[in-house]
Structures are given as C-alpha cells and as structure tokens.
Amino acid sequence: MSADVFEKCFGFHAVDDLKQTGFYPYFHRVESEQGPEIIVDGSKKIVVCSNNYLGLANHPKVIESSILAAKNYGTSCTGSRFLNGTNDLHEKVERKFAKFVGKEDAILFTTGHHSNLGAISCLVGKSEVVVTDRLDHASIIDGCRLSFGEMVRFRHNDMKDLKRQLARYKGKGILIVVDGVFSMEGDITNLPEISKLAKKYGARLFVDEAHSLGVLGEKGTGTGEYFNMQDDVDVVMATASKSLASIGGFIASNSKVINYIKHNARSMIFTASLPPACVGAIDAALDLIVAEPERRAKLMQMASKMKKEFKAMGYNVNNSQSPIIPLTVGNDLVAFKMWRMLFDEGIFASPVVTPAVPEGQSIIRTSYMSTHTDNHLDFILDKFKKVGKHLGVIA
C-alpha cells in the first residue's frame, strides 16, 4: 500500500489535546472593532496583544477614507498589479510612503508577508548571500528560502557573529536583512554597527520596519530615523497591518531597485492587488501619523511605565525597548495556563511557546496602543500581578 500524504494530518492530535485542557488560546472569535477593549467570544476583554500601536484601526478619518475609496473604485481590482490591478490610489500611497521614509520610490504589495517574500527572493540570486538575524520574522526567512542564494543567520543582535559571517563571504553579493523592532522580543536592532559592517564588507542593508513604523523616530518613520541613519538603509520594508491600520506591505528604495522588484517579484506579479478600501485606509493613516505625533509620544510614555511596573513586580521583560513587552513565564504549559487565567480575568493576551521561543522560555507577549487609558493600564497590571503570583511566575 502506498504512503498517504494526509497521514500526518490524521495523526495530528496536539491541538485536540490542548483544547481538552481548556487552555487552547488560538482562533478566538473577535466580535467588535479593534480597540483597547474588544468583545471576544461574547465577553469584554482588555487587549494587550494588538499591533494597533497608534489606535488608528477605528479612527473616523481612516474609516471614512476607506469607505470613500470603496465607493469610488469598487470592492476589488480583480487582478494583479502587474496587469489590470493598479489604480491611481495605489500610486498615490506609494509616492506618499516613499517620501515619508526618505526613498526615491516604493511599491505596495498585498500583504507584508508578500513584501518580504517577493523583494528578498528576487534581490538575492545565484552565488549571492542573504544574511539574517536569527530572530527575524518568519516572512523574512520564507523570502530567503525562496531566493536562489545562500541564507546565513547570525546570533541575535550579536555584531561579532555578524562580522564573522560577513567575513566568510567577502567579495560576494550580500544582502543583510534585519527587523527594526523584533516582534516577540521588543528590542531594537543595532543599526549603527550593522551599517558599519555592511559598508566594510560591501553589503546592502534591508530593514523590516513592521513594528517600528509609526512608533520610532521623531516623525515615526522607524529605526532608520531613530538612529538618524535613514540614508544608510538601502531598502525599507513596512507592513500596513499595524500602525497603518489596514493590510498590505511597502518596499521602498532607489527607483531602479523598485523597478526591478516590480518586474521580478513573484508575490507581486501573481497576486491580486490590494482592494481600494484597504489602500484608502493606508492613505489616511499616513496623514495621521504625520499630523498627530502626540499619539506616538503617549505610546512610548505608556510603554516605559508598563516596563517599569512589570520589572518592579519581578517579571523578566528581557531587553524590551518598544511598546512590545514580553514577559518570560517558563514552560509552554505555564504560558497556556497563564493565558487562560488572564482571559478569565478580562485580559486578552498572547502566549508565545516553543518553537517560536527556546524551550523553557515561553512568554506572554504584551503590546500597547496609544488609546489605552490609565484605567486600562492599572487593570492590566493588577491582573498580571494576581495571576503571576498564583502561578509562581513572580514572587
């Protein structure tokens, strides 16, 4: 009898086993808009797992712009950007984003994942090398794997290890790809040192600003601005599903690089283009990031307060430098139990377990929005203190 490709599916029991314990934390039904308070499975929860950093996902101007775009352009472009799916609204936000991050040109993909997938895989060819941080996002890793080049990884934010890897491939075409802010750890990439090494070894530098756009820098343009090094970054990537309150992904760079990506990225050419309503939302969100810097200031003050309070309780917050604050809780089962107890106490959080983190280092990932109130934050802290003590995560 021949082997059945579905055999692994029929033997997959881990999820069913977890559901039986009552600790299953995934695919819960949200029944409201994405604000600091949401309705999940019929009950109100305070959210500490959203990437809606500036609180724009339910901003009236963003919603209005989205509705107007749908009225003017319909619900779908019915094809890829490459053929019939490019309209003037796509081109408008591309010009706006490129100007915002200080690059000559930009291209808008349908998702952030598609952005990394398409750009990295077509930029890194045979006999070339892509060098990534070990904790880079999965979309970066997927883009590297789809390229025809060699993928090399260096230890997280370890400049000695990066230098060692670059020295091994001296003389080859090299693309260094890093997250600006790391999505689980909340720390910032060491851009100054990475840039020095890139120049020394003739490498190009690609920075994924998914979790830093709208958050870092005086104007909110991300890690490059945060370090005053925008010109040192060759390629900027950013998702629209976080601070930009929509979905989609941008790649911005030199106009010739963007032109090459537009005509070679398979995830651009063979994917339907972003619907007008989503593009309209991005258009308004970009304007609000510029017009309302107080959102960013409040967010960073809030993040500083929460990090300080969690540390005072005895939580290990690792090296968080952003509104993403991970709390190390131990093994996977403890993380699932803690998620369930927090959920029952009115907190909607995210457990992150093996293999996303090393064994024994599972975390509860918390993240904040500028629209959280002081009452929200006090409630969050109170519940984390209660549950953390009950489980022995904190003394």
Helix and strand arrangement:
Blueprint: H1 7-10, H2 14-21, E1 37-40, E2 43-47, H3 60-73, H4 88-101, E3 105-109, H5 112-123, E4 129-133, H6 138-146, E5 150-154, H7 159-168, E6 174-179, H8 191-200, E7 204-208, H9 223-226, E8 235-239, E9 249-253, H10 255-264, H11 266-269, H12 276-291, H13 293-313, E10 324-330, H14 332-344, E11 347-348, E12 350-352, E13 362-367, H15 374-391
Parallel strand pairs: 2-11, 4-5, 4-6, 6-7, 7-8
Antiparallel strand pairs: 1-2, 3-9, 8-9, 10-13, 12-13
Helix pairs in contact: 3-12, 4-12, 5-6, 7-8, 14-15
Question: How would you describe this protein?
Answer:
- With 395 residues, the chain is α/β, with parallel strands linked by helices.
- It has 2 domains: 20-54 and 293-391, Alpha-Beta Complex (Aspartate Aminotransferase, domain 1); 60-291, Type I PLP-dependent aspartate aminotransferase-like (Major domain) (Aspartate Aminotransferase, domain 2), CATH 3.40.640.10.
- Helices cover 42% and strands 16% of the residues.
- It contains 15 helices and 13 strands.
- The strands form 3 sheets. Strands 3-9-8-7-6-4-5 form a 7-stranded mixed β-sheet, sandwiched between helices. A 3-stranded mixed β-sheet has the order 1-2-11. Strands 10-13-12 form a 3-stranded antiparallel β-sheet, with helices on one face.
- Helix 8 (191-200) links the parallel strand 6 (174-179) and strand 7 (204-208).
- Helix 3 runs antiparallel to helix 12 (276-291), helix 7 runs parallel beside helix 8 (191-200) and helix 14 (332-344) crosses helix 15.
- It starts with 6 loop residues before the first helix and ends with a helix.
